[in-house]
């Protein structure tokens, strides 16, 4: 079971299903035990669902060490398997020469789009000196305020989102530092790196380790974001290529389905 059996459940359904199985596995990759999650997660608090599911499952799979630590307070059988991607599903970036107007990319959902607003001042300052575009791959058309002047929206679809990454220049993953975001599994960074993009991210939770593994740039403050993006835009195509290829190699070795498949099979009893 992943996260929940029903969006309307209070956890009793999940508990009953998990306890009735000869061997059951509960998998989660967000800090859903924090009922202070942002909208729209806050509409249906999941802390009780998570608690009952973790207690009922034979084995719990957590997507990072932060999540595993919380689960281990309830269950004696918790394993950490990082959120993984299938690198072959991502077209690989072929050229690292910047286009006339460089493109930064952010991939996500309407629920996490507000995180982009923390980049408003850094990105607009960069744009005032060197024109840039921010490609937002998401759903809907929520306003991002002052950022709208540099935003190009691409509607997310399972068939096309990956191809919208490879011709961008830099992947971005801003995160505020909250109990909920510390449970994030750095999935955006892994997706960008699978496409061969250099990445910049907030050093929050698992992002810290993943940024190190991908040779990405850490941006703890607004000025840090501005400096990191300016540095990547100013460096050579060869240097960006080396960063992008190092990130892709790190995904292949440590964050791919293939790399973790044997351990996952053993964990779920296959």
TrEMBL record:
Pfam families: Glyco_trans_1_4 (PF13692). It is an enzyme of class 2 (transferase). Keywords: Glycosyltransferase, Transferase. Its EC number is 2.4.-.-. It comes from the Bacteria. GO terms for molecular function: glycosyltransferase activity. This is Glycosyltransferase. It comes from Pseudarthrobacter quantipunctorum. The lineage of its organism: Bacteria, Bacillati, Actinomycetota, Actinomycetes, Micrococcales.
